[in-house]
Write a structure and sequence with these properties.
This protein is mainly α. Helices cover 46% and strands 0% of the residues. The longest helix is centred in the N-terminal third of the chain and has 21 residues, at 6-26.
């Protein structure tokens, strides 16, 4: 029996890996987000969750509608808050220029408590 040289084994390994990766991407088996696999199993190590078939909900139904630590001013406006409401709760002027800034960072700069501000903003969303 003839043996393969180590260089050919390395090349063959890379080719097999590349083909498997491309095939997985084309068939939606290669997923980089925590969504379910084509067999309906949940992935991403995020615990058990109900599938869309069981709940009748779509992915859009799971979009967060609350302010959290990573929420930016732009995100808050997209959720339905106005610049005036944000300015009032954050105790200072908030404009479109602040859209990319995290609310938590603004709260810290202004010496406010994030938990209190978050609760006030979320109550405005309800």
């Amino acid at each position: 029996m003839k043996h393969l040289k180590p260089v050919y084994i390395s090349i063959l390994t890379l080719v097999i890996f590349t083909v498997a990766l491309l095939a997985g991407m084309q068939t939606d088996w290669w997923q980089t987000e925590g969504r379910s696999t084509p067999l309906g199993e949940t992935g991403g190590g995020r615990g058990e969750s109900e599938s869309v078939e069981e709940t009748g909900e779509t992915q859009e139904d799971h979009v967060s509608v609350s302010v959290s630590g990573s929420t930016t001013v732009g995100d808050a406006v997209s959720l339905g808050l106005t610049f005036e409401q944000l300015s009032e709760v954050l105790e200072g002027e908030i404009t479109k220029a602040d859209a990319g800034e995290k609310i938590k960072d603004i709260v810290t700069q202004r010496g406010l408590q994030f938990g209190v501000v978050k609760d006030e903003l979320n109550s405005l969303l309800d």
